[in-house]
Amino acid sequence: MNPLYEHLESALQRVSGFIYPNEVELHWGLLVVIYPYITGLVAGAFILASLEKVFRVKEVEPTYRLAMLTALAFLIVAPLPLLAHLGHPERSFEIFLTPHFKSAMAMFGFVYAWYLMVVLLLEIWFEYRADLIAWRKQSRGLKKLLYWILSLGSKNTSPEAIAFDRKAVYAITLIGIPSAFLLHGYVGFIFGSIKANPWWSSVLMPIVFLFSAIVSGIALVLLLYYITSMVRRKTPDMPCLNKLATFLLIALIVDLSLETLDFIHRLYESEESIEILRRLIFSKLFLSLTIVQLLLGTIGPILMLAFARFSRLPDEMKRLVYFVAAALVQVGIFSTRWNVVIGGQLFSKSLRGLTYYKLELGGVEGLLFGVALLVLPFVILYVLVKVLPPWEDTRPSEST
Questions:
Q1: What is the pLDDT of residue 388?
Q2: Is residue 21 part of a domain?
Q3: What is the CA 53 to chain-centroid distance, rounded?
């Protein structure tokens, strides 16, 4: 072997913290963090809604319509982070004009269109059809026209038609469950299939993404149900909150178990990347991973939910504990997305050094625009709730 080469190799082995200049800038920023976070909320909210229609969990029935509208509001916003990140959002139409079926990224357009147009919109329409007809009869002016448009001019409210609506909702929900798995599971598939990145390359990545989506969706619906009940000066249904808390607790335990299994698997393999990943966890990601994601966002809510669910606390205290635990879960899940997307870009390809990510305040990739994207679904949900009230006491008598 060339002595000069041996000298260079020996010198490189002693180098610590080296990173090439072209690896300093991260290609994926806050927008790519927000994208899987929002799609996870969509999938989780829909899966929660399916518990009532498919699995007959009657306790969560008060949240069914709210969960569907929540999924729709967030699904409308879901592609916006990616479109803004592209810089030329008009090029996204090429996905449909020149389809590339071997690209996981390109297939998102078709998965999104299927889930929005076929699953969510159809299920919501069949669920609300009889109510839309009744509301149209009770309304005047523009509101009457709006309900006529939304009902597509339908007039049939016979028992046979309403029975068909219920069968249609059931069938669409059956189709929607694997569709929801596909919608968010493929995001984890994209990261998990990048073999060159040891932080992402894991066969468990799609499953971890999916269960974290279920966790975030249940937590969001619990938060919204509690807040909307307080705003409407209604007492939240305690059996419903207890059941939501139980499902959230189970999903959190499974999610934590999967992430722990993934971490143990990485340690057992002990590949050459394990050293740089250890440095990443205990330096750059210590606060966001260990403190925020693990302690505040996972273990803390598990203990709070378990204590409140199986203790003899008054209902008022239980509701408050559920609310705080669900809020912490949202922080933890967002931190999870941050640690995956940003964390996977903080070490060099040579596995010898770490870089940093600086979040700007303004600009398309900045904090303000990211916050606006996170607020926008709630604005859309507010409009949807005004047009399509999801609560049982707002349903017209003709359709009940």
A1: 94
A2: no
A3: 21
What pLDDT digit, counting tens, does each position of 2-13 carry? 666 555 455 545
CA distance 375 to 46: 20
Q: Does the residue 11 lie in any domain?
A: no
Spell out, as residue ranges, where the chain has pLDDT lower than 70.
Answer: 1-25, 104-105, 196, 270-271, 397-400
- The structure tokens listed for 121 are 């919109």
* Per-residue confidence (pLDDT) for residue 181, from 0 to 100: 82
Residue 19 included in any domain: no
User: What does DSSP assign to residue 393?
Assistant: G
The per-residue DSSP string of 88-115 comes to -GGGGGHHHHS--TT-HHHHHHHHHHII
Q: For residues 249 and 305, is the Cβ–Cβ distance under 8 A?
A: yes
* Contact of 225 with 244, CB cutoff 8 Å: yes
**CA separation, residue 90 to residues 31, 114, 116 (Å):** 17, 20, 20
Cβ atoms within 10 Å of 307's Cβ, excluding its own = 13
pTM of the model: 0.90
Which token pair is 61? 């029935």
On whether residue 17 sits in a domain, the answer given is no
Domain count across the chain: 1
Query: Residue 17: CA atoms inside 13 Å, Cβ hemisphere, count?
Result: 3
Residue of 292, 263, 282 lying closest to 198 (CA atoms): 263
* Greatest extent of the chain over all pairs of C-alpha atoms, in Å: 90
Task: Write the burial class of residue 42 (CB in 10 Å: 0-12 exposed, 13-18 middle, 19+ buried).
Answer: buried
How far from the centroid of its chain's Cα atoms is residue 91's Cα? 25
Read off the tokens for 36: 């899987």
- Which pair of structure tokens corresponds to residue 93? 């139409």
Q: Which domain holds residue 204?
A: 26-392
Nearest alpha carbon to residue 325 among 305, 295, 299: 305
